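Quick one, probably user error.
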């Protein structure tokens, strides 16, 4: 029987693994030149409501392309992590309509990937003094030390489970799946029409529930369920290696799942990140300093024939002398070396 090729993959050009870096929407020309000097040819960004328009994004696209860098995907926090959509509130139809308009804008700019994460509270972290923090709850993610005193994110479920709910009531798993189904059926026809793919990120941390809200994606089986519900080539995943590592065997077999989902054309974006151990407590590490041999992970993506962007995610904060430039340079240099070695080995 002839294998069916995903219609969404026509937008994945050129073929092969493409290293990408996150940029702020107000990125400077100097930073873009820095990325160009490292040989980075792809980037992505998150924008505010005011920036999620053709005028702003076309200007940003023109600037990045002057440095030989293509914007591969754009997310908007208030749509990709919309409380109205994720929690099924009365105003969700309005939010989904705005999301559809955003897809039309991206399509007009020849940008064919955006992001959603079923995290109304955003990505959660904990602090040594017993608080839960995120971009929406306040606080900062870099709350513990990793190698050399670099500041890094920590999650301790003993702290998380004692934290109060962030909503007036609890939300069950069934409700969350109902909300996802409603969203998928409403928005995916527009995604298919505009040719803009929706990459679904797993919940981080991948546990049953956080702060009174059940999670959507906490294991590979949840992804299979989401893809069955959506029944569309235009829903895929942000394959977050970090979430797989955080969840360990409960999330799924990392190497087998890479092969499975890449072969199904369901991996649109890869987040490449290492951690020091599995839940109930983990600290994010430098890519070479966690419990996973990341060269084996890179080889798995190369062997599977992954065709999309791969980016370093949540890299620890270095000393002020290095700043974000040093952090990015270290991560990108390491990833480039891993990728070159993996591709050379595959070609033997």
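Nope, works fine. Designed sequence:
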């Amino acid at each position: 029987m002839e294998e069916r090729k995903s219609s969404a993959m026509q937008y994945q050009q050129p073929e092969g693994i493409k290293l990408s870096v996150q940029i702020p929407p107000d990125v400077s020309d100097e930073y873009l030149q820095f990325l160009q000097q490292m040989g980075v040819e792809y980037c992505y960004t998150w924008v505010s409501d005011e920036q999620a328009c053709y005028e702003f994004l076309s200007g940003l696209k023109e600037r990045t392309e002057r440095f030989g860098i293509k914007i591969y995907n754009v997310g908007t926090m208030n749509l990709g992590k919309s409380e109205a959509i994720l929690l099924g509130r009365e105003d969700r139809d309005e939010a989904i309509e705005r999301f559809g308009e955003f897809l039309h804008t991206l399509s007009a700019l020849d940008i064919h990937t955006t992001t959603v994460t079923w995290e109304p509270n955003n990505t959660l972290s904990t602090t040594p003094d017993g608080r839960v923090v995120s971009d929406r709850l306040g606080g900062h993610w870099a709350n513990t030390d990793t190698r050399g005193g670099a500041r890094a994110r920590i999650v301790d479920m003993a702290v998380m489970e004692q934290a109060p709910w962030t909503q007036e009531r609890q939300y069950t798993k069934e409700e969350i799946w109902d909300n996802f189904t409603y969203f998928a059926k409403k928005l995916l026809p527009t995604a298919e029409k505009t040719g803009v793919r929706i990459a679904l990120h797993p919940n981080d941390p991948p546990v049953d529930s956080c702060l009174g809200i059940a999670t959507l994606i906490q294991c590979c089986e949840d992804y299979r369920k989401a893809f069955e519900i959506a029944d569309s080539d235009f829903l895929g995943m942000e394959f977050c290696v970090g979430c797989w590592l955080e969840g360990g065997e409960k999330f799924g077999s990392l190497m087998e799942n890479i092969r499975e989902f890449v072969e199904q054309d369901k991996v649109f974006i890869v987040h490449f990140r290492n951690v020091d151990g599995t839940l109930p407590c983990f600290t994010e590490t430098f890519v070479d300093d966690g419990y996973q041999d990341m060269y084996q992970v890179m080889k798995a993506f190369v062997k599977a024939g992954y065709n999309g962007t791969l980016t370093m995610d949540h890299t620890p904060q270095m000393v002020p002398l290095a700043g974000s430039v040093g952090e990015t340079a270290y991560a990108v240099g390491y990833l480039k070396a891993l990728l070159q070695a993996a591709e050379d080995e595959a070609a033997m």
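The chain has a mean pLDDT of 96.
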